[in-house]
Amino acid sequence: MSLLVVGTVAFDAIETPFGKTDKIVGGAATYIGLSASKFYDQINLISVVGDDFPKSAINMMQKHHMNTDGLQIKQGEKTFFWSGKYHTDMNTRDTLDTQLNVLENFDPRVPENYQDCDCLMLGNLMPSIQKKVLSQLKKRPKLIVLDTMNFWMDNCLEELIEALKEVDVLTINDEEARQLSGKNSLVKAARKILSFGPRHLIIKKGEHGALLFNEEEVFFAPALPLEDVFDPTGAGDTFAGGFVGHLCATKDYSFHNMKRAVIFGSVMASFCVEKFGTERLESLTDDVVEQRIQEFVKLVRFDVC
Ligand code: AMP
Q1: Domains of the chain as residue ranges with CATH
Q2: 9 falls in which pLDDT band (50, 70, 90)?
Q3: Residue owning the nearest CA to atom 13 of ligand 1
Q4: 12 contacts: CB under 8 Å, gap ≥ 6
Q5: Pocket-testing residue among 48, 149, 159, ligand 1, by greatest number of atoms within 8 A of Cβ
Q6: Taking the model in full, what pTM does it have?
Q7: Which of 152, 237, 266, 271 to mutate to test the pocket of ligand 1 (most atoms within 8 A of CB)?
Q8: β-pairing, 200-204 with 210-213?
Q9: pLDDT tens-digit profile of 240-291?
Q10: How far apart (Å, rounded) are the C-alpha atoms in residues 33 and 30?
Q11: Which of 114, 142, 289, 299 could crosslink 44 through cysteines, CB 3.0-4.6 Å?
């Protein structure tokens, strides 16, 4: 049994009020895999890079329990590149550049040894590619989570709506929820988005936490108040990795367990933002993760009378 992760493996150039990076390793699947690996160790990756992508970064992923049999390396082509600049509030950002490069003609192939898949995490990518992976699975996974962003809403809304019919959980941020639903109220937005097909919806609100909806219930998890946020890049993917990693490890896909998974996703995201790129996630130990889970418990626990 395994967790199948599909998404970008990328080069990012990031600018925040604290500094600027040149091309560093990033990508939705990279963050998801690193985060999920703290909870689960059978992770199968599907993505594509060019021959400019460093072997050391692939080794790093393998070291963090990611099987890279499904990572295509395209000779003579360039890796997906994204560049973004954060505003002073660190909650909002402008995308400065998106170069699809290898992603443009990406034809994902699910290796035979990936078929035994309990959970599928369709990380941020073209919706048509997300669907193509799903259609190659001989058995429907027990849990399908899809993450997306405004870029795909702007460029391929129809395919995205089509993909949403197949998923159990959709994760997006508040701005994207409003864009996708055309509603300002997040409660109304959630109702509308759930009518597109997903059985659960997670709306991420950056430093203001995350909301989990199904048709009957709502749950809220705060983000950990941090003194310094250096780089929020990948926080959403890291959240998704912690969320799906916990569900995959426990094999309990109930709303009750999803609440816990939202907390674990928030725990992982709180680490991601502490350093540039994937640096903090790469160096995390189990003790430090456990300590932070306890900080979350303390943060939200209260008695009524
Ligand atoms: P997040 O901050 O969670 O939204 O994720 C940022 C990561 O997503 C970066 O590492 C980027 O490489 C990757 N990314 C940015 N734009 C896209 C896109 N349009 N499709 C897929 N991945 C993207």
Answers
A1: 3-300 (3.40.1190.20)
A2: very high
A3: 27
A4: 21, 23, 24, 25, 26, 27, 81, 82, 83, 84, 233, 277
A5: 149
A6: 0.96
A7: 237
A8: antiparallel
A9: 999 999 999 999 999 999 999 999 999 999 999 999 999 999 999 999 999 9
A10: 5
A11: 114
